[in-house]
Amino acid sequence: MPAVPNPLDPAHLLLAFLSGGLLTLMVDFNGLVGLHGGVLYSSWVAHGTGTVAAIIFLVALHVLKPSASGTRRPAPLWAYLGGISGAVTVMLTSASVNTALALSGTLALGLAGQVAFSLASDRWGLFGLPRRILRPRNGLAILMIVGGSLLIIFGNG
């Protein structure tokens, strides 16, 4: 059984909250681009912008802190699949945000999918993660997220 993790740092909670806000902006912007140019174009714009930003970041990182001489292990092959899942995610969210689901429904169902997949990854030790026994509260969390998603989508308030 793995050791109990350290208590949550408030700064980490704030960063997670801010990243959720950025995710919302990203989905909204991608949806607008998808509305006017199509979902494939939306994915190209998002990934082209990300590629340019990554190149600038890597060049700045290399200039500010040159890498130490040493050997690094190569990334596992599955690590390169992130670009494919990212492209599909952008296309799917760009399409669904322009339907009756709208932005909040798209994000709510996306959150439910992320939590469900993370629980499966913990349970079966996917991607090199340590296996973890799921508790009843994990199922309760999924039910509450799906319930909240359904309220957001079908609630008329």
TrEMBL record:
Presence of keyword Membrane: yes
InterPro entries noted in UniProt: YdcZ
Entry keyword annotation includes ATP-binding: no
Annotated TM spans: 12-32, 44-64, 76-95, 101-120, 140-156
Keywords noted in UniProt: Membrane, Transmembrane, Transmembrane helix
Cellular component per GO, a single term: plasma membrane
Annotated PANTHER family: INNER MEMBRANE PROTEIN YDCZ (PTHR34821)
Record-given protein name: Transporter family-2 protein
Lineage of origin: Bacteria, Pseudomonadati, Pseudomonadota, Alphaproteobacteria, Hyphomicrobiales
